[in-house]
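Quick illustration, no need to memorize.
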Amino acid sequence: MKLNKYLAAGCLAASAIFVSAASSFAQDKAEVDNYIKTFGFLVGERSGLSELQFTDAEFAVFVEGMKTALSGAKAPADMQAVGEKMSAYLRERADKNLAEIAKKNEEKSASFWKDLDNNKKIVKTPSGLAYEIKEQGKAPMPTDKSVVTINYTGKLINGEVFDSSANAGQPAVFPLDKVIAGFREGLQKIGKGGKITLYIPAKLGYGNQALPGIPAGSTLIFDVDLLDVADAPAQPEAPVVPQIQQN
């Protein structure tokens, strides 16, 4: 669950972005309001609040707590005891909500997977991964220890794109042992210069976890061009593609 790790790291990251954006000392109210709104969006997105699914009344109580802190009030004397119980409650609540969302999304994916089963171009592996090779490519073939260079587009079954190497304006380079299981297995089906479409079930992707643009329980589709394959260095420093990175 990202709730705990993002409550600190996510808010700090959002703060850094906000401070950087506001450093131009903009005087236009609409522009400043947009900065603040963007800051609020980042805090909301990266803090894990969406996993809790607060009601309007609960969110008002949450905001009241923030205002109390900002007023300079001292923390309650029993903060540690309350904090432990709070963490357990929030973790249980978030996990339950994510599990329910994941179940609904997996049910929605059932007909999609049924159609794939009837498509003779699609190969399905024992793990549950499905794929279609568009071009086989040539040696070298990647292993789970390889560093690969690829162009890729990742989308959901409704066609919505959640990530693409085009966003960076250049191919992505990363070690295969740092990505989700379905992607790691799929890339080893083709060689350098190969092209493949991967259909990754939630259990080989992010499972019940939700990420920006990827709801819990999502089937992931990747169109991938494998541009190059190299042996991993002793201490890999290659950047990892955010949307296919493991936690």
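Residues 68 and 164 are 42 Å apart (CA to CA).
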